[in-house]
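Q: Could you fold this chain for me?
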Amino acid sequence: MSASRARLVGHPSRAALAGIAAASALTGAHAADGPPPSAPRVVVEVGTVSVRPVTVNSWIPGSIVSRADAHIASVIGGRVMWIAEVGMRVREGDPIARLDDTMPRLRAEDLRGQVARVRAQREVASSQLERFNRLAATQALSASQLEDARAQREVSAEDVARAEAQLEQAQYETSQSVIRAPFPGVVTERFIQRGEYVQIGAATVRLVNTTDIEARATAALALAANVRPGQQVTVREHGVERGGRVRTVVPVGDDRSRQFEVRVTLADPHWLVGTPVEVSLPSSAARTAVTVPRDALVIRQNRSYVLRVTHADTVEQLDVTPGVGMEDAVEVTGPLSPGDRVVIRGGERLTAGQAVRVINPTQRAVQLHPG
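A: Sure. Below is the predicted structure, expressed as structure tokens.
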């Protein structure tokens, strides 16, 4: 073997040594890293598939009304001295108008004098009757004279009763010169002004209780069989839905419109009287259906689905067909069973087969606001 060949075999070139070193370093790096780590589980909240009665509802037009809305009339006639301003809020018993009470007050004074006079006449007639009774016992008085005395006593008593009733009426009319609010509310309209003369029974103001309110709706008679007092319903205004409960169903339909009236108690009292609303009333009898929480339903352009959590805590996409919507749930048709867990939060980017970790709302609050 020549010297040059010996040098080639016994001493590898620098390029070969560098390649071997790089390969060894790469192999060592892979060995140190080990197998790639698994993806973290996505944190989700779940709801439960349930079976519950559902109904098909119809939206019925209605409005917000007050249960105490009245034109307050005057009991007596008289000139208006003062009347409440529009927008004035009053309590029950507060004055809303004052009339000139001069005439009923003077009449009451005159009647007090009449009452005193007829009472004195009654006393005289009573004394005379007693004296005639004593004389009749001694036969010093005729029977006709005794009867006349008794009649005079009765007439005097009737005069007293009549005068006292007239005095009471005059005092009542004097008290009614101040027109008072029969219930708390707001003056929304005035029908007469200061200085004008109001007739007996004429309206003075419109008073509306703005806190004791409810929804009034008129529905077709065909829905009457499905509506019952106490039912939970939804009241909608410009797309905003709020809860309510049927207070009463007026059991009389209108001959011309073929409609009946429903009154709904509102869960939220902050409505303006006169606000137009819609009330959701059942248009058919209740039926049993599979439902999921509203937040569990994912609606896309061409499909609707839910994400069901398996026993292995992975998710699967199940296509469903949505049906009747309720306040907190939606009827669905699809491969679901009562008790199934479906994702209601945290599923925005989940894909089928992805692993999840289920938490409850309390745990979520702790994670969002630790410590």
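A (continued): Residues 42-55+287-368 form a domain with the conserved putative lor/sdh protein from methanococcus maripaludis s2 fold fold (CATH 2.40.420.20).
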